[in-house]
Amino acid sequence: MKVFCGIDWAERHHDVALVDETGQLVAKKRISDDAAGFAALLELLGTAGDHPGGQIPVAIETSRGLLVAALRATGRPVYAINPMAVARYRERRTVSRTKSDHADAMTLADILRTDSHVHRQLPADTQLGQAVAVLARAHQDASWRRSRAVNELRSLLREYYPSFLNTFTRKAGTCLSRADARALLAIAPTPTTGAKLSKARIAAALRRAGRQRGINAHAEQLQAQLREPVLHQPELVEQALGRQALALLATLDAECASVDQLAQATIEAFEQHPDHAIITSFPGLGEITGARILGEMGDDRARFADARGVKAYAGSAPITRASGRSLSITHRRIKNNRFAAAGWMWAWAAIVHNEHARAHYQRRRDNGDRHSSALHHLFNRQLGQLWHCLQSGQPYNPELAFTREASSTRAESVAARGS
Q1: Which helix (H) or strand (E) covers residue 410, if one does?
Q2: How far apart are CA 217 and CA 224, in angstroms?
Q3: What is the pLDDT, as a whole number, of residue 413?
Q4: How far apart are CA 327 and CA 319, in angstroms?
Q5: Angle at which helices 127-160 and 287-297 pack, to 10 degrees?
Q6: Low-confidence ranges of the chain (pLDDT < 70)
Q7: Residue 417 confidence (pLDDT)
Q8: Which CA distances in Å does 143 have to 136, 147, 256, 279, 296?
């Protein structure tokens, strides 16, 4: 008799339901979220016929947490079912919109009983691969938090201290996350204090920020810029805004430190992974972006049946909708957003540092694609190449990766010389 397990998880307890192949309830139990609860779950599964040669599969609405980690450690098949999909399955069982934890556990078990072939097991990634994923995601989150902190501080400085923003503005935008900008703002949080700074104090702040060359000349330039005539808020208001800026600066300092520490930890873990050499052989894939790609793709070679699966997961493959005479090809909205963000950075870096990728991007632009569509197409192309290289264990080869493009480029060069 086949048995299927569904677990409706919560913060303090979990509801477990076991059903047989006909959909009849075999057993149910509410367990606690601790080691004793997990032992009770294993006992319940063992009573239902669970054994090393035929372990009962489990469906749950999350892919992370201690319970999932403990279940995966037993070697049994674990399916993480999207909560939205569970809600749709629930509507098949009742039209009254009733809901309970036990009913949700039953629904999860029934999903495995009827449709396990259309749901994917959690990948069997190595511990090192999972560690890279944790660190890469943490670094990505820290980078996003740093951007939010920069934007919040910039918005405040615009209200009373725009001259400071102009001092640290470059082509890429305001560089408030730079160490020298943060060090200077710490000693000059208002226009009044900034205008009173001596060149020696500015030079000392630059040294604390790590600057080693041209300190005196740069300090003199900053002093001149801070002493230019500016508009002022009322004195007490300006002081209050300065205190708020210092509070936001403390948050930004913490986020910048987190980004640096997590970047170092991510790189150290990624360099130990066997796929490091293949991934970093691709143009545009450095240590951080490569770690993010590995973290989201995983190192379980059986996770995706082919390259189309990983492209759909990353959101680089478009969606085709065909019905009657209607046919539309649109951007994929349901995807791994972290994977898509890393892929966007990968494509950007590739067109800057690699002539073949840049030629492919330009060819798409010449054919009428917008910038975003051309980048998506390049990411889609390179992701398929990466999947093939990881499957075959060979590094990136530009002549094989862009054979058609390279041939056409050589033909155009020969034609140009002949004319």
Answers
A1: helix 403-418
A2: 11
A3: 46
A4: 11
A5: 120
A6: 170-174, 403-419
A7: 47
A8: 11, 6, 8, 22, 17
SS3 content of the chain, % helix, strand, coil (to 5): 60, 10, 25
Q: Which amino acid is at 145?
A: R
Nearest to 385 by CA among 283, 296, 274, 277: 283
Please name every residue paired with 174 in a beta bridge, in sequence order, or none if there are none. 169
pLDDT digits (tens, 9 = 90+) for 111-142: 999 988 888 889 988 999 999 999 999 999 99
CA dihedral sign of residues 175, 177, 180, 186: positive
Can you say whether residue 83 is alpha, beta or left, with left for phi > 0 and alpha for psi between -120 and 50 degrees? alpha
397: helix, coil or strand?
coil
Would you say 315 and 375 are in contact if contact means Cβ atoms under 8 Å apart?
no
For 395, the 3-state DSSP assignment is: coil
Residues 6+ apart with CB under 8 A from 332: 312, 315, 316, 317, 318, 319
Two tokens, residue 235: 């004195």
pTM: 0.85
CA distances in angstroms from 273 to 123, 303, 412, listed in the order given: 17, 18, 41
- According to DSSP, the β-strands at 78-80 and 58-60 are parallel
Q: Whole-number mean pLDDT of the chain?
A: 88
Closest to 132 (Cα-Cα) out of 313, 287, 362, 358: 287
